[in-house]
Amino acid sequence: MTKLMKPLSGAALACALAIGASASANAQAANCPNGMRELNIGVSVVPPNVVHTTPYVAKDLGLFEKYCINATITPFEGGSSAALMSALQQGKVVANVTDVMVGSGMKAKQIWGFLPRLPHAYTVTPGIDTPKDLKGKRLSAAGGGVGGFNWRMGRYLLQKGGLTVDDAQFISQGLAGRLPGLLSGQLDGVALHPEDLYLALQKPGIHPLAVLSNDLPNYVFNMYGASDSYIQRDRQLLIDGMAAMIEANRTIYTDKDKVLPTMIRVSEKPKEAVEFAWGELTKNCVWAVNTGFDKVRGEWTIKNSVEAGDIPAEKGLTFEQLVDLSLAEAAVQKAGGPTKIGNCSL
């Protein structure tokens, strides 16, 4: 359940008005002879984690309007939820498309490598010091249940400890219940985003068991994609929409003060937790600044999914079948061409 928003302070109100003025100026400046085009963008978490706030930043900064797009942001309860996959298959939304979805038969492609790296720390309760200690524990299966991201990360750590999924109890729940479940003792292990890790560490004894990007450096996290029919029907719209969000990601890296108010508002998390998350995510190059795609990492992720039994080996899914790289490259060109920000170049 989304929390009620607190009234804006004078400073926050001034910032909101400035953002609105910027959006209006971009809309007026845009040359839109055919009017504004509609684009529906799916977000995988309600409310979104800080890492998922790119489309909100793009909207608040007027970047969609700059490209003659009226963007609607639709939240879903998990990146592998039935509702999200249905909307994708019907060609109604741009949202997270995984190798498992395409390998299982969905006629879709990834069109921009939104979040190429894992942002999570697998966080556990006191007494769990190695993956072997997960035996008999209650692990999160939030946001999709069996086959969902949390379930897959729990399975990975169990396997690392020489255990199987039958050696732990997986608890299905809403994504908003991940942090409260850990803090209340209903869960013993869950993959937490940085802002939730910051809050979890305030309770003595709770600690990270694994930083997932260190354990799985080639694991591809979150890629925006669309159905094949949508790409064929509205390719230019998708290029322009991805370009707007590429610009938003670059602004996230370079202008913290401009993007932080949006992140705080939509994530509904305290400022200090959001600032911590921004620091971790930018330091670790989690947000893409270019296409976000890397063939070696993409092929590793497909192979990992096949070996885990999530994609039938006989499907023979390739990187080229999964990714429309030319669309992403066209979006990067629209956003000003390839760039590098600090050490971040994906």
What can you see in these coordinates?
- The protein is α/β, with parallel strands linked by helices and 346 residues long.
- It has helices at residues 10-29, 54-60, 63-66, 82-89, 99-103, 149-160, 178-184, 194-200, 212-215, 228-233, 235-254, 256-267, 271-283, 295-307, 319-322, 325-334; strands spanning 37-43, 69-75, 95-96, 108-115, 121-124, 138-140, 169-171, 189-192, 207-211, 222-227.
- It contains 16 helices and 10 strands.
- The protein has a 3-stranded antiparallel beta sheet. Strands 8-5-9 form a 3-stranded antiparallel beta sheet.
- Strand 6 (138-140), helix 6 (149-160) and strand 7 form a beta-alpha-beta unit.
- The longest helix is centred in the N-terminal third of the chain and has 20 residues, at 10-29.
- The radius of gyration is 20 Å and the shape is globular.
- Residues 1-25 have low confidence and may be disordered.
A few lines on this structure:
The protein is built from 16 helices and ten strands. The chain is of the alpha/beta class and 346 residues long. It has a three-stranded antiparallel sheet with strand order 3-10-4.
Descriptive keywords:
3-stranded antiparallel beta sheet, disordered N terminus, 346 residues, 16 helices, alpha/beta, single chain
Beginning-to-end CA distance, first to last residue: 35 Å
- Kindly estimate the percentage of residues that lie in beta strands according to DSSP: 5-15%
Mean pLDDT: 90
Order of SSEs, N→C? HEHHEHEHEEEHEHEHEHEHHHHHHH
**How many E-type strands?**
10
The assigned structural class equals alpha/beta
Which stretches are poorly predicted, pLDDT < 50 over at least 5 residues?
1-25
Shape: globular
By DSSP (H or I, 4+ residues per run), the number of helices equals 16
- With strands numbered from the N-terminus, the spatial order across the biggest sheet is 3-10-4
What percent of residues adopt helix (DSSP H or I)?
40-55%
Radius of gyration: 20 Å
Largest sheet: 3 strands, antiparallel
